[in-house]
Write the structure tokens for this entry.
Amino acid sequence: MQYIYVLYIDPGTGGMLFTILFGLFSVALFSIRALLMKLKFSSGTRKNKMNAQKIPIVVFTDHKRYWNVFEPLLNEFEKRHQKVVYMTCSEDDPALSKKYEHITCEYIGEGNKAFSKLNLLNANIVVATTPSLDVFQWKRSPNVDYYIHVQHGANDISMYRMFGTDHFDALPLSGEYQVEEIRLLEKMRHIKPREAPIVGIPYMDEMKKRLDAAGELPPHERTVLMAPSWGKSGILSRFGEKLIDALISTGYKIIVRPHPQSYASEKEMLDKLMSKYTDPSKVEWNRDNDNFEVLRRADILISDFSGIIFDFTLVFDKPLIYTDTKYDISPYDAFWIKETPWTFRILPELGLVLNEENVSEIKDLIDKCIEDPSFAAGRDKARAETWLHMGEGTKRTVDFIMEKYNEVIAKKAAEEKEKDKNVSPKSTRHLALKGKSII
């Protein structure tokens, strides 16, 4: 009797294997292309041509949701008549409809298509909020001189996935505690110290200006916003229906704003919740790209470790309920640092904790947080520690980027000058015999 053996691979494993194989193929393809580029531009004449084609400054974003981070910077570059190329992975990025004179905005595709372009980029400076440079698909291009990472939140720089910022040349920050975290990680990993100037937070400065201009909200029913992060430690994964039911029982206006990544990474769980709570008079599901209005409408925020905590408490000056989610820091840089991350140290001063035991008392927690004035002092303390140079973030950030750009240009000019000085007489005679100018 003959037996036929069938090898079965479940869809999840199959997808993972495909991703790994595709990643290996992309790395191999990039290596071959990089080698060809190196050979192509190995001669002095071709190197000069390549230098002449360099983009001065590239700003890269992997998603349109970071437009609020980059818009103030691009507007400042435009005001200074500085040439910049903005590269986005979102086909409907708001930048693509802007009418800039000095800024060029390009859609470069998604995933590996985008990274294949970035990995061979020819630029002096690259500015990005995307972490994990030189860790996964996104590699340092041999033709980029300097990489600058800008944060998209007012919290710990160590809360990125492990090694997320190790391969950037500079990290403009907003608080002294962030600088301390970077220095500890550099020491532990034997990384050459990078520049880490404290510049402030441009997008929060702009949000504060926008809030001041919007004026007071008209009288409205008490409104609760739940805005979780994504993953197994997030609110929806940990509390789910139990918390939503408790919130509905308060009789308050309830808005749920899932993290954008939830729609991709935990779609099954989210679809189940959204299909159960379909009555907008009880639960409003918010998916606005711009979170300004929903933050302005809310009287209190319920969140976990999402960066929206600091937008809400520090800019909108409103209280917080944070969840006891048993956050697992093992995949993050914070795991290397013995001290509890600043984000978790400051939370008790911004509001009250929600856990499995007091979910049924959510209404009392909401009322206490809104009516107790003591949390205002905690918000003042948090601003003083994580939002330095308030109102000056855009100018200071662009000043730093321009300083590094000018340094790169000056260094290259000095190297070319030194190279010209070292041209040997024999080489000079050889060029002269060929009828080529050496000037």
